[in-house]
Amino acid sequence: MAFRIFLDTDILLDFTLKREAYASARRLMEWAMNGRVQIFITTNVVNVTAYWLTKAYGAGKAKELLAALLADIQVIDIGHEIAVNALHSRITDVEQALQYYTALHHKLDYFITRDSTLDKAASAVLPVCRPEEFIKNNS
Fold first, then answer.
1. Which residues span the domain enclosing 123?
2. pLDDT per residue over 39-60, tens digit each?
C-alpha cells in the first residue's frame, strides 16, 4: 500500500524551480508517478507555488506546470473546524499549523517539509520528515 504523504510548499518549489534540493523532490514525484506514494497538498500550497512559478516562468508556463503536477497530486481542503483547531495548536507558524492540521485531519501518513520547527509540535500520529529522511527510510 502506498504511503499517503503531505508535501509542503518548499518541496514543490525545489522540484519545479530545480533548486538545490531538486534530487530528493524529484524522487518523491517519481514515487508518486509510480504509485509508491500518494501526494497531497492544500490550496495554499497551490497558491504559493503558482506565485513563484509565475515569477520564474510566466503565467502560461506556470499553469502548464501546475496542471502537470496535479495529475499526480491531490488537493485537500482546509475546513473551518480544521482551521480553528490549527490556530489553537502549539504550532506557532500559522501557515504550517493550517497545513499540518489539514494533513492530520485527512489521516495522512507523513508530513514532508524542510521546516524543522514542526518537529517539536508534531503528533506521533503524523510524523514530520525531511524528504531525504523519508526516502532513506522507505527505499
1. 3-138
2. 999 999 999 999 999 999 999 9
